[in-house]
Amino acid sequence: MATDKEGARGRRRHRGNNRVTIEDVAKEAGAAPITVSRALNTPEKVSARLRERIDRAVEALGYVPNLIAGGLASAGTRVIPVVVPSLSILTFIEVIHGIQQTLEAAGYQVLLGSTDFDLDREAALIDSVLGYSPSGVILTGLRHRERAAHRLKAWGRPVVEIMELGEPCIDMNVGIDNAGAGACMAQHLLDRGYRRIAFLGTGMGMARDYRARERYEGHREVLEAAGVESGLLFQHDEPSSYELGRQLFLEALEARPDLEAMHFANDNLAAGAILEANRRGIRVPQDIAIGGYLGLSLGEHLTPRLTTVTVPRFGMGVEAARLLLTRLEGRSLASSRVDIGYELSVREST
Amino acid sequence: MATDKEGARGRRRHRGNNRVTIEDVAKEAGAAPITVSRALNTPEKVSARLRERIDRAVEALGYVPNLIAGGLASAGTRVIPVVVPSLSILTFIEVIHGIQQTLEAAGYQVLLGSTDFDLDREAALIDSVLGYSPSGVILTGLRHRERAAHRLKAWGRPVVEIMELGEPCIDMNVGIDNAGAGACMAQHLLDRGYRRIAFLGTGMGMARDYRARERYEGHREVLEAAGVESGLLFQHDEPSSYELGRQLFLEALEARPDLEAMHFANDNLAAGAILEANRRGIRVPQDIAIGGYLGLSLGEHLTPRLTTVTVPRFGMGVEAARLLLTRLEGRSLASSRVDIGYELSVREST
DNA sequence: GAACATTATGGTAGCGCTACCAAATAACCC
DNA sequence: GGGTTATTTGGTAGCGCTACCATAATGTTC
């Protein structure tokens, strides 16, 4: 019964990809392949009776849709590439976590790409991932090669740029105001009565993390407006680490023994500094005050607890994913730009 | 001159996916699409002259291959799903980093999946990612639902199971000997002269991180063999954090004030404990010795520096990716099981 | 119950690429 | 030069699915 017409199974061309196809399910359920497709993708368009038969067939055969084929036919796989500068920076990881959790719950998969802060690699990576016909893309930052930005705009699907906020963006933008965050900590240090304040960071050349530079600019403007020495900057160009924080701390202390406060570009550096201060018996904040940026949980466990500007990294990922999903589901967007905000967490180190 | 036969461009069916296709390149270069395909995938099979013309056309038109179409035709996208239990655990992140860096250099993309330590979700996720016709798969651990393991075996492409070592594995296996690592630290603590030694961990029920349980078993056996109290176990079921380390530390101290050493299931917990000891003025290791597992860089910056069992997390990712690539490139494998090893890093906390 | 709107199913074609095989061309040998 | 063997190129078909349209079944209205 129901002999295979037109050549039968098994005459498959390529190396036996013996997976169950939609056709197998259709036969099993006594329906057309297209109807099976509908039953899976838009169940409300298939009668309950048939749908049930199809579901049973799917179950019985262990059918798993070939998303590649589906993607080719409908020009859109359920993949969202997320392109970040580095996977060794905890911040990006936490953002990715938020993105991944939100997207996976909605049936999308995250494709990971990292650029090592190189805009050319970013452009190449964008080209490459567009080859997967993704449903949308999430990028880090607002600065990209012209070619990449242009291609993404022409592409016409949802694109979210994260981490920073500004004009122009390709499509949607979720981030925080870096200059504001830098200014916020600087203002706090001033309010605390500190006057000789340094900024300590890393990779702040244009090539690497220019967001740290924006924070520095915000910091500098506040100090300048207050009529305080504003150009105290210590920086290296290696990736952030506890070790680098330690080094910056010692260097700054040696170069300017009169410093009252240190504003670190991130909590990793600040933590390295506090840990070194602990080791040397330097009292924080009595001898030197220390402020950070990020809100890593480590900060709350140091002695003294680290004063920092807390940024909802996970939340930023969730929000970016939500924006993307909203657009993918065709719902309209209240705003295509979301300021995720930050919060000054005053603790013991300042 | 060369008018478009058969209906011309622009009669494209779906929503104007106006990307440049291989056909456009072929026309531009005056060759057949299949030849363009060859020029890109197996350049050595195309004459230098033609290849150059094609390369120029690719450049001129900004052609980017549609990997979805290629994947459908040749049954294999250059995607490697990496399935881990959680993205909030630094260890997995570092492993993923190693994998990602190695695979991306070889032109593969990492597809990220997380299971939240749920084997059913893992099985569902495996089904789902197989729908992307990936070139291979990397999984965490050796324990999976029967259905998932069976499906992957039948699938016939490279599969690497990471993090732990053992039998049976689906295909290839890169990891470390957890029981051995636990025993190693226990032995060290004994060698140091400590006798009342506790193990402190988290999520060690079968459902969650059973690798920590294996370390505990290794630890216990060593203590038992030494004729020392061996069942001292403190554990919670929340995810690891500094905070949890702090709590476990205090609980253990209260329950057993006579403890001489604490063996933590990982460095996050151990660091939380040391930081709390710092805060309370409890001397480590004089009052209580503390050992960890992982080799996080934080450990080297604590006071005292943390004695730990260092595991090459990044290296494990690199090795897993290498194994996979070796198989994908058709080269033969020295061994399908790699013990990545660990190293006892004796520092100040024991 | 005829005329229409609505919903449920199926047929066909094609997404863009590459496996397979056939044809054309170049290279080589007595 | 005829015959043989490499090398280079092209034609065809189809990977598994879904967009689009056509048709069939059902419901609704007066």
TrEMBL record, chains A, B:
- Entry's Gene Ontology molecular function annotations: DNA binding
Alphabetized CDD domains for the sequence: HTH_LacI, PBP1_GntR
Q: Show where the HTH lacI-type domain sits.
A: 20-74
What InterPro entries does UniProt report for this protein, alphabetically?
Answer: HTH_LacI, LacI/GalR-like_sensor, Lambda_DNA-bd_dom_sf, Peripla_BP_I
Sorted keywords for this record are: DNA-binding, Transcription, Transcription regulation
Q: What domain of life does the UniProt record list for this protein's source?
A: Bacteria
Q: Which SUPFAM superfamilies match?
A: lambda repressor-like DNA-binding domains, Periplasmic binding protein-like I
UniProt-recorded name of the protein: LacI family DNA-binding transcriptional regulator
Its source organism is: Halomonas rhizosphaerae
